[in-house]
Specification:
The structure is a single chain. The chain is built from 15 helices and 14 strands. It is of the alpha/beta class. It has one domain (5-424): Glycosidases (TIM Barrel, Alpha-Beta Barrel). The chain has a nine-stranded parallel beta sheet. Strand 11 (334-339), helix 14 and strand 12 (371-377) form a beta-alpha-beta unit. Helix 13 runs parallel beside helix 14.
């Protein structure tokens, strides 16, 4: 294994296409969907993974973080699909053939539709369901696995709760409140109709549709962490040498003189609250895209002259290094940048962003931060959840009418930096 991993990341639902047994597929296809558009064939990565991994490897990258889709592996409760687990074995073997270290994620937001019908992520039972799935993956694919992320951005439910809280306080919803694609252009009537339609589709009350990207209280957030703990235990019983952790969505909170207490509170909500539950994990996946200035009233909208990304975040690549150094003061284990990137149509800017961001990661590493990898988001221009396909994060453009791949210069830049930094760290 290389001393330092540098590559790119994807999520199964966002790139594979035709994830028909998942909760998100259902939510995308109700008449009054809160998604800007359905995922459809997405990037057809399910069938074209070899080409995509080859392009990553040929550019010089040595690692690939990708998702295993629970809804494919266990399309009905307790019924595992042997053809689908074989598919992911082929993806893992493809990585090895190209000299790429795979880092897998077991749950990257999308879940089996049957899980939602049984209470989803708002039920304590989710720990038993998730650990059964994690054990099966470990048993079937364990010879190919070293790094396993159980849950992507486990703190997203609390962050979405804060967005709603702040919206109620301010009377509006700002862009860039969370690090995930949202559709903020819906009127209340469409939202309510969509909720009713989802309820019928899942055969449950609209108020009980607990998909992962829903606001959560601290009580239900504990169910997520119990699921992580149960999955980790199951994996370790099968693969004691595997490195298991989860990932967190973290902003670089930068306080004004009057905003120090507010910044401390925000950091505690995003990170400190989770620390007791993850302190014994083998590693932590750190996911960051921007900073937020904090005054006595909380986070400010970016300054009028601040450069913004397509997501509404401030374009501030150095934030990832700052976050790593802050996390390392409290988390005792290995750190990995499992997501960092920029949504922009300007690939020259993406190239510059990658250089600045990776430089800040290396500065943190030289200062003693135990960071062992960096994954750019994303390998492909993909389906950005509620926001659809308009947000371009990818190192590779995809013409979805033909599924033709067009590697951008930013992919070469990342590969060249991978070679440079890995040589320096030898």
């Amino acid at each position: 294994m290389a001393d330092f991993l540098i590559g790119a990341a994807t999520a199964a639902h966002q790139v594979e296409g035709n994830n028909r047994r998942s909760d998100y597929w259902i939510m995308e296809h109700v008449k009054h969907s809160d998604f800007a558009e359905p995922s459809g064939l997405a990037c057809d990565h399910y069938n074209r993974y070899d080409e995509d991994i080859r392009l990553l490897a040929e550019a010089g990258c040595n690692a690939y973080r990708f998702g295993i889709e629970w809804a494919r592996i266990e399309p009905e409760e307790g019924q595992f699909d042997p053809d689908e687990i074989l598919h992911y074995r082929r993806v893992l073997e493809c990585c090895r053939e190209y000299g790429v270290m795979p880092v897998i994620t077991l749950m990257h937001f999308s879940s089996p539709a049957w899980l939602i019908k049984r209470g989803g992520w708002g039920s304590r039972d989710v720990a038993a369901y998730f650990s059964r799935y994690a054990r099966y993956v470990a048993e079937q694919l364990g010879d190919q696995l070293l790094y396993i992320c159980t849950i992507n951005e486990a703190n997203m439910g609390i962050q979405l709760h804060k967005v709603i809280r702040d919206m109620m306080k301010a009377g509006k919803r700002g862009e860039g409140g969370v690090q995930v694609g949202q559709n903020n252009g819906l009127d209340m009537k469409s939202i309510l109709l969509g909720m009713l339609e989802q309820g019928r589709a899942f055969h449950t009350s609209p108020l009980k549709i607990n998909s992962f990207l829903k606001p959560r209280s601290e009580k239900t957030e504990r169910f997520v962490l119990e699921a992580h703990a149960a999955a980790k235990k199951a994996i370790k019983e099968v693969l004691p040498e595997a490195k298991v952790g989860l990932t967190l969505s973290l902003f670089d909170y930068q306080p004004t003189k009057a905003g120090k207490n507010a910044a401390v509170k925000l950091w505690k909500e995003d990170f400190g609250w989770y620390l007791p539950y993850i302190r014994e994990d083998d590693f932590l996946g750190v996911q960051n895209y921007s900073r937020k200035i904090v005054d006595e009233n909380g986070t400010r909208e970016p300054a009028a002259d601040a450069p913004l990304t397509q997501m509404g975040y401030e374009d501030y690549p150095r934030s990832i290094g700052n976050v790593l150094m802050r996390v390392a003061r409290h988390f005792p284990g290995e750190l990995m940048v499992t997501e960092n990137g920029i949504a922009t149509s300007d690939d020259e800017r993406r190239c510059a962003f990658i250089k600045e961001a990776l430089s800040s990661v290396m500065i943190a590493k030289k200062r003693g931060v135990p960071v062992t990898g960096y994954f750019h988001w994303s390998l492909l221009d993909n389906f950005e959840w509620q926001a659809g396909f308009d947000k371009t994060f990818g190192l590779i453009a995809v013409d979805r009418s033909t599924q033709t791949r067009y590697p951008k210069n930013s992919l070469k830049v990342l590969g060249d930096l991978a070679a440079q930094y890995c040589k320096e760290l030898q």
